[in-house]
Design a protein that fits this description.
mainly alpha; de novo design (two linked rop proteins); elongated
């Protein structure tokens, strides 16, 4: 005798995942806006010392002002993508926060793809930060943590949507 499948789901509600994703994106957006403001101040005044410069080897200035701080460290100065990385963070977190308000499969899959890409970018930047720049940037590490949390949340939201679709599909089959 096989165990009967339950229509019960485990985990949080979609509303809760949406709220948590929005919250983490707002934190990521805040970090990105702060980084962008620091970068603008640094362009105007090379002597500017932001709050995120905690010590010689714990400096956001070192990361933001490095060759990797604009255009992901791969685009040339004449490229349209040669902008502070924090600019792309602002766009990214705004997009994911907006998409997280929807439970449509297209929005959830789009968010999942964007968040996976952001985690690959985090690994790339963490490698550069630690092994090339020999620095610890608290703002950067904060965004890496937000990206990992977002990956966990969007994966769980994606799973919940699949489970709900399965329940709805199975219920429709039984009714016919």
């Amino acid at each position: 005798m096989s165990p009967k499948k339950s229509n019960k789901r485990s985990g949080l509600s979609l509303w809760a995942y949406n709220q948590l994703l929005t919250l983490t994106c707002l934190i990521g957006l805040g970090l990105s806006l702060y980084a962008y403001a620091v970068e603008l101040h640094l362009e105007q005044n090379k002597n500017y010392k932001p709050y995120c410069d905690l010590a010689e080897h714990m400096s956001c200035t070192k990361a933001f002002d490095s060759q990797y701080g604009k255009g992901f460290g791969i685009f040339s100065k004449d490229s349209i993508f040669y902008k502070p990385n924090s600019f792309f963070g602002i766009v990214f977190y705004s997009m994911v926060a907006t998409l997280s308000l929807s439970n449509s499969p297209v929005a959830v899959n789009g968010s999942l793809l964007l968040i996976i890409l952001s985690n690959f970018a985090s690994l790339y930047f963490a490698y550069i930060l630690y092994f090339i720049l020999a620095d610890l940037c608290v703002v950067c590490i904060g965004t890496y943590i937000v990206n990992v949390i977002n990956l966990i949340l969007i994966t769980k939201k994606h799973k919940t949507i699949r489970e709900l679709n399965d329940i709805n599909t199975n219920g429709m089959k039984k009714a016919t």
